[in-house]
Design a protein that fits this description.
Radius of gyration: 17 Å
Distance between the termini: 22 Å
Order of helices and strands: EHEEHEEEHHEEEEEEEH
Number of strands: 13
Shape: globular
Structural class: alpha+beta
Strand order of the largest sheet: 3-2-4-1-10-9-11
Number of helices: 5
Largest sheet: 7 strands, antiparallel
Length: 257
């Protein structure tokens, strides 16, 4: 699959040490990498179709301090979509109120008819990008109905419903940033951890240091604002259990057979 990393802080923090360890896992996730620094109205996003630990661009980036209050990082093991820049995470979109959404995903969506219509709207080929477009459409629909910008609590409730309804039979390890809240979700056991310290919260597929980590809440969407948890969703109880046979239709579809 992939690995995901996120940081939500109460102040800027240098992330180089964590990022070096995170990207060193690219030997098992060689199909691309991404980094998003999200403290500005226009995020600074870098994506490259290259194994991260062999990237001259990433090596140059990490030779200088990488500081942020909010950041996302991703290393890709492709299951859906070719090795192209358009299929590398993070994905980003802007809703009708001008709010920017940025998403990274570790997993596969096997069953979700509601995402099929986005095949012709997306820039790449991944199920992850289709999920982002779907949730932004849902936000836009709710905003139009309310005739005003949605509150943080209203946005969280919409995402909580989407994640709960999308989790059966799908692996949804997600980090999503909506320019205010960092949302996190896992439904695959022992595949997402969090570390809380004075600077904020760090979330990663695997612990990046020897201590301070604990499993992220399971089958429950959570959201952080500046490093503090502010929302906890409803436990949907839809644990994803790995089944190798479920990947066969995907491999056939994307091999052109």
């Amino acid at each position: 699959m992939c690995e995901i990393y996120g940081f939500s802080g109460n102040r800027e923090k240098e992330l180089n040490q964590d990022l070096r360890v995170f990207y060193s896992h690219a030997c098992d996730h060689p199909n691309g990498w991404g980094l998003a620094l999200l403290d500005h109205s226009v995020p600074r996003i870098t994506r490259e179709v290259c194994r991260a630990d062999r990237s001259a661009l990433l090596r140059e980036r990490l030779s200088l301090p990488v500081t942020a209050k909010t950041a996302l990082a991703h290393i890709r093991l492709a299951t859906i979509g070719n090795e192209e820049a358009e299929n590398c995470h993070p994905f980003t979109a802007v809703d009708h109120s001008g709010r920017r959404w940025t998403l990274i995903h570790n997993g596969t969506i096997f069953e979700s008819d509601k995402l099929n219509r986005y095949v012709f709207r997306q820039q790449g080929e991944t199920d992850s990008e289709r999920l982002l477009l779907y949730l932004v459409d849902r936000i836009n629909e709710a905003t139009a109905q309310a005739k005003r910008e949605l509150t943080a609590a209203e946005r969280f409730a919409i995402l909580d419903g989407i994640v709960g309804n999308s989790s059966p039979k799908n692996k949804l390890n997600l980090l999503i940033y909506d320019s205010e809240l960092l949302y996190a979700h896992t439904n695959f056991r022992d595949s997402l951890y969090e570390r809380k310290d004075d600077d904020g919260v760090t979330i990663s597929t695997c612990p990046l240091t020897d201590s301070g980590w604990r499993p992220a809440p399971f089958t429950t969407l959570i959201a952080y604002r500046e490093g503090e948890r502010v929302f906890t969703g409803i436990d949907h109880h839809h644990e994803y259990l790995f089944d190798p046979s479920s990947y066969k239709p995907l491999y056939l579809a994307y091999s052109g057979l």
